[in-house]
Amino acid sequence: MTGGGGGGGESGWGSCFAYTIGAVAVILIWQLISNTGLKSSFFFFFLPNNHFRSQEAATPNPSAPPPPPSFGSFNNSTVPASSALSPPRVSGFISDSDLKSVIDNLDEKLQEHERWDSVIDRRNNLLCYKAKCCKPKDGPLKYLSVTIFENCSAEVLRDFYMDNDYRKQWDKTLIKHEQFQVDESNGTEIGRTIKKFPLLTPREYILAWRVWEGKDKIFYCCSKGCEHPMAPIQKKYVRVGFFRSGWRIRKVLGRNACEIQMVHQEDAGLNVEIAKLAFAKGIWSYVCKMDHALRKYSAFYHLRPIIAVNAISLIQKVPPELDTINISSADHPETSTASAICCKVACERSRKKLLRPSNKLIANGLIFLGGVICLSRGQSNLGAKVAMAYILSKLTKRGASSSQSRQALVP
């Protein structure tokens, strides 16, 4: 009997030890993902980057059904690989009608039964970011975002978005980018990008994209999926079969700031609700990382070497019939308002930081203290320890969130 009791105690201890090791392993894996930047790639499942040369779309499986229609009148679904063999056909991959469709979507001209739902609205002293989404009748979720960068010019932001060599230095989601073909007659560029998806197979994008310049240094880009004979399907990647993206970069009226508005659709084979939740939770950290890289890029912008032949060096002029559309910031007062709020919020936060310690510091202290107490009680059940840590985490996160909301509402 005693031996049996002893055996039962050892068995219970062994189970507890196994659970503890499992919990520690999960925590270590999550920390590894966070520290290596892979976490952002799961959150930022499209980009964004998005929409620029570091992204590419992919060829659908020939046996699969044709991709759903693109946003609005974004015509010419996936371009067949045979057309890529003939350079003259490359010029038809992206047309001026695609540009018009991008402009219509950026101006929020929705199709029937479409409705925007807010996803995130965050800001600091140098950056404002807002995003919303809608579910088209056919096709994946459509995202519309506006990012305002203080102390930045439209030209610098444009080149930053299109500089894939520099992107490799700061964007840990980017595994590889290569150019396949450029049509010098109209500036259409074709290439491939491979991106990390933590715990999932990397995604491969084969894209065609084109850039335009309008009045007052307003820039546009349109990207969409295509096929190319230089990019056969490989089993080690998941080829993204549907991709549509476009952006507009312009100066914020009356301020030393510029904004990028982006509309984006892609089907990377992820669960819609999970992808939406991951985006909402992680995109802000990704955008902050992007802003940090942009500041470094601006410092040596005028010292960069001459770029090769690509969509930027072959930038096209916006057709007159589309360039007459009045899209100044005066028509979008929310842009100037949001930009002004950035500085106001930053000043208020700086003042409050001088008056009291940050909520984040307090939260981390509480979690640490709670963890020490739990771990110091050897008789405590592992489940109770995990539950207490989870509750402490939730309470402190909720308090920090409420504080941030109050700060954002300061007049």
From TrEMBL:
Q: Which residue ranges traverse the bilayer?
A: 12-33
Q: Where, if anywhere, are coiled coils annotated? A: none
Q: What domain of life? A: Eukaryota
- Where does the START domain lie? 112-299
Q: What's one GO-annotated cellular component?
A: cytoplasm
SUPFAM superfamilies the UniProt entry points to? Bet v1-like (SSF55961)
> Which segments carry the region annotation Disordered?
56-88
Which UniProt keyword terms apply here? Membrane, Transmembrane, Transmembrane helix
Q: What is this protein called?
A: START domain-containing protein
Q: Which Gene3D superfamilies match?
A: 3.30.530.20
Q: A Pfam family in this protein? A: START
